[in-house]
Each structure stands twice: as structure tokens, then as C-alpha cells.
Design a protein that fits this description.
The complex is a heterodimer.
Chain A lengths: L5 H28 L7 H8 L5 H35 L11 H15 L8 H21 L5 H25 L2 H5 L12 H20 L1 H7 L3 H6 L4 H23 L5 H13 L3 H26 L7 H24 L1
Helix pairs in contact in A: 1-3, 1-13, 2-3, 3-8, 3-11, 3-12, 3-13, 4-5, 4-6, 5-6, 5-11, 8-11, 8-13, 9-13, 12-13, 13-14
Chain B lengths: L1 H28 L16 E5 L2 E5 L6 E3 L2 H9 L6 E2 L6 H6 L6 E2 L8 H6 L4 E5 H4 L3 H7 L2 E4 L6 H14 L3 H19 L10 E6 L4 E4 L4 H8 L13 E4 L1 H7 L3 E7 L1 H9 L7 H4 L3 E3 L2 H7 L2 H15 L4
Parallel strand pairs in B: 3-4, 3-6, 4-5, 6-7, 8-11, 11-12
Antiparallel strand pairs in B: 1-2, 8-9, 9-10
The chains are: A mainly alpha, B alpha/beta.
Chain lengths: 335, 318
Amino acid sequence: MIERSAIPKRVHLLWVTIILIMVLLIAIVGSLSVGVASISWKELVEGFKGADSKSYSILMTIRLPRTVASIIVGANLAVAGALMQAMLRNPLASPQVFGINSGASLIVVAAVAFLPNIGSSNLIYLAFLGAVLGGAIVYSFSAKGGMTPVKLALAGMAVHLLLASVTQSILIFDERISDVLYWLAGSVDRASWSAISIVWPWSVAGLLFAIALSRPVSLLSLGGETAEGLGLNVRLMRLIIALIVVILAGASVSLAGAIGFVGLMVPNIVKMLVGENYSRVLPLSALCGAGLLTLADVLGRFIAYPYESPVGIVTALLGGPFFLYLAVSKGKGMK
Amino acid sequence: MFSVERKRGAFVFCVMLVAAIIMSACGSNGGNASSSGKDAAPAGSKEIQHEAGKTVVPAEPKRIVVLEFSFVDALWQLGIKPVGIAHENKDDIDLMLGQKIDYTSVGTRAEPSLETISTLKPDLIIADQNRHEAIYKDLSAIAPTLILKSRNASYEEVISAFQTIAEAVGKKEEGSRVLEEHRAKLEKLKAEIPANENRKVLVGVFRSDSLSAHGAKSFDGNLLELMNIPNAIQNAPGATAKISLEQLVEWNPDVIFMAEADDDLLNEWSKNPLWQNIDAVKNKQVFEVNRSLWTRFRGLDSAEKIAQEAIDHLYPKG
């Protein structure tokens, strides 16, 4: 097929970008203004001037870090998902396939079960460690004797199930943990500046690296052999991408717990809008992921108002039907 | 091509699997499980209405297995020792009853062992609606089973479960007597509380990464409300609700009872200037209370002790 003229496409891309930015802005405003406490402008201004103000404290110490966390986590998960989908050449792939959520969950649950005085401020490091561990196990299994997307997907699924079952068995013996760990459901509502300050450098570095590598990622999405033929060092590239995925998804899992479906949904939405070119897909996924997760978190405050639902439950509610739709429609398309 | 077909096949299979699971789950809730005991009802046995249907229970069951603490308390109040009890910690039952009794442990409340239960050859099993309704059929295959409310139940629901248990073990009269004594004790305690008490109380479980509040529909919240002590968390969808710092500040309790006090969460929150904004913190009305007593046991005896502990904190002597 002959490509359509470049100008309308560029205009189209511009519109998509503008709309995604608008969505993110609306989400940020919503996230800062929705909550049980009503924030008064007058008090806010007084707070900025240095007075002791409740509205100011709520905004600065609760809602703002929460919003920043949802932006970071959303962007990370979406870009990690896009990278996984390119590498596995499968629209249903997500960071979960890399054993990242299950690795982080296992380490966190085991730590809480066996080291009762561990302290939740240390969980952020443990979750990151678990994410790296999960990713390393999957990678080393699938890289043995030459990596293929199918091997990676199978190894990923097997390791994911194995780790998840170990986690489950710990939870059965110590029931308290499943109550203790709100974390398991995935939420951003307790994000603090100190946690964000640990995570953001990793996240920004991961995102920038990913976007800088968008051309080789596009090549890789054409398939290993084609990419090799076009002069790409496929093995090295896969290793680098795997590392970035682990950093991005590990950073978000340690900040907000196991949030599913964002990494699956967002890249697919973006690809529907702008096509398969990853120099567009990656930055727009970051934008769209940040907007979607922030919106989902705002939505979670409405579901059982004035009580809150964890954002991980909201994304699962949105993502479940989307997954089924994807499975059916992609199946049709490929026929 | 093949892989696409296979994927669709797998998808259809998954949908069917999910459908099958849902249908089988519905089937097990379908209440016909109790009919097994109906055929050969010995003399004196009676039909008891409970949360999952009706079950025929022998006149005076002797070997009773219970899967929740509040049921242990109910039987104990009626002078019956259960043969099997589900619990988590070794000393749960000793702490609850204040003395050691002989019983067989039948696993945890979340994961009771059906095998151990059946080796005890019970003639009655009392299980919790929240945790065990899904295994009602399996339990009924071992012995007549009652499904009653305990976990996430209010005080009033626990009292109603007590009455059902008294009837089931053939001690209805004694049950009423015990209940009267219990109510008299609570009335006496209530007399120490001014009728116009308007301080809002938050019963909070401060865990390592979240605060779970026991609202007006929880066992302890409901109990205190009946004693004229208002709860800060009204209209929560369930017995407990997860509360953020923003909500805590906004709903501003006058008194906080901490059933669990994880240092991590408290350290983090107490660094925030908003923490000092909470009236309970400002007025030093934050008290640590016994977790098992306030959140796990849920019996008549624990209700009396909870009321006493609350009064001791709210109205210090001297």
C-alpha cells in the first residue's frame, strides 16, 4: 500500500498529542481537587505565604505527592508495556510477563511474614529488589540457547505462576499479611515525597533511555531476523530493553504496588491512534499512561465516596474488558 | 494461522472455564446441601434456620467443631467445650477464655482442615458466613453445619448468632439467661457513660501501610454506639474502611483507640503537620488497646471487656 501524504498524518499526530496532554492536565487538576477535604483558596494562599494552613498541608503533603506518583507510575508502566510488546511482538504482552510484579510481591510478602519488624519504609527497596530478581530469573531462563519471543513468553508465564504460587502459600499460612498489605492491591494514595525522591531518578532515566532507543525498538518489533538483517545487534538490544523494563516496572511496583493492565492497555490505545512507529508510540505511551492512571486514581475516589478504592482495582475493572476485546479483535484481524 | 486458531480456542476455553467456576460456585451456595441429614432425623433433633438455609441438628450435640472465635465464646458461655477449634496462634484460646482447655486445633480460620475436622467425628459444625460459606457443602458432608455471622459482623449480629447457637445446642433457656446477665453487665457499664457523650471515637488498626478503621457497623463500633459512644466512621460500606490521612484529618476524631500501632505508619504520619491538627492528637486522647480483644474475638465476654477498657480510657478515675 502506498503511504498517504505526510502532511495529514503529521496534523493527526499533533492532535493526538494535544488531546493526550489535555487529558493529563484534566487528570492532574482532578487529582489535586477531588477528596473528602474541601480545599479553600483563601487558606491555600495563606499557606503559600507561610501560615499554618490545613488546606495547604493537604495539598502539598497528600494530594500533590499522590498525583506525582500516579504520573510516574502510569508513564513507567505504559512505556514498559510498549517495550515488552515490541520485544515479544505480541500486543498482549505486559511487564507482568517479566515476572516483575510477582517477584516484587513475593519478596515483600516474604519480608513481612518472616521479618515482622522490617518496616514499610524499607519495602520500597525490597520491592525493587524483587522486581529485579523476577526479571533476572525470567531473562536467564529464556536467554539460554538463544532467546525467542515465544521462549520469553513461556518462561515469563511459568516463572510468574511459580512466584505467585509461593506468595499465595505464604499468605495462606499467615492470613494477617493479606490484610496488612494494602500494597498488594496497588495504590498511590500513601505516596510520600521521600518515596518519590528514591524512585524518580530511576524512572526518568528509564523513560529517557527508552525514548532514545525507539528506532532500534521499532526494528526489533519487526522480528529478530529482520532486525538482524537490518544491522541490529538483537541479543544486546534485548538485554538493554529487558533492563529498562525491569527498572521502569520495578520503580513503579516499589512506589505503588502491583498495578495491572496499564502496561497492556495504554500501548495498544496509542498504537491504534498513531500506528506502530515506536518513536511515536513510546513518548505518547508515557503521556497517555500518566493521564490514564491519574484519571483512574481520581475515579477510585468516587466509586465508594467518601471511601477510596485502590487504583489497582480501578485499572483491573477497566483493563479486564479491554483485554478480552483485544484478544477477540486481534484474533479476527490476524485471520 | 494455526497459532491464531489456537489462541481463540484458548480464549473460548478460558471463558468456558470461568463460566464453569461461576456455575459451580452458585451450585454450592444453593442450599440443598443440608438435606442429607433430613432423612434419618433421630428423636429430639430440630431444624435450625441459619445464614445458608436450614439444617437438622441433633437434640444435644456433644462433639462440636467451631471455626470462629465468637462461636467458642458462645459455647463457653453455655458451658460447652468445643472438641475442635480453628485458630491462628497457639495461645489464642487461652487468652480468650482466660484458662487452658483441651481441644483439637483444626487449622486456621481462613484455611480449616476438612480432614482434621472429619477425624473428630463431630455432630455439629459452626462456621462463619464470611469465611466458610464457600465450603458449606463440604462441611455439611462431614456433619450438620450452621453458617452464622462473625467476621465483619456487628455486635447485634453476633448476639443473634449466639441465640441461634443456644437453640442449636438445646440450651435455649440457658442462652436467654446468659444474655440477660450480659445485658445487665453492659447496662451497668453504660450507667458510667453520660447520655450526651458527643466525642467521636475512631477505632483504628494502624498497620504497616494503611489505617483500617472499625466503623459503626463493626463489632466494636456497633457495641460502643449502643453504649452511647459515637463512632467517627458512619455510613462506611462495610464493617471496616481503609482511611487515608486526609480522611482522618477531615473526619477529625476526638478519641482514637489504636487496636494495632505500627511504628512505621505512625512515624510517617506524625511527621506531617496535619497529624497535630487531629483533635484526638491535640488533646492527647490516643490510646493503645488490645488487638485480639478489640478486633478478633468478638464474643459476649470480649464485648464486656471492650466496654470496660473504653470507659477506663474515656473517663479516667482520680
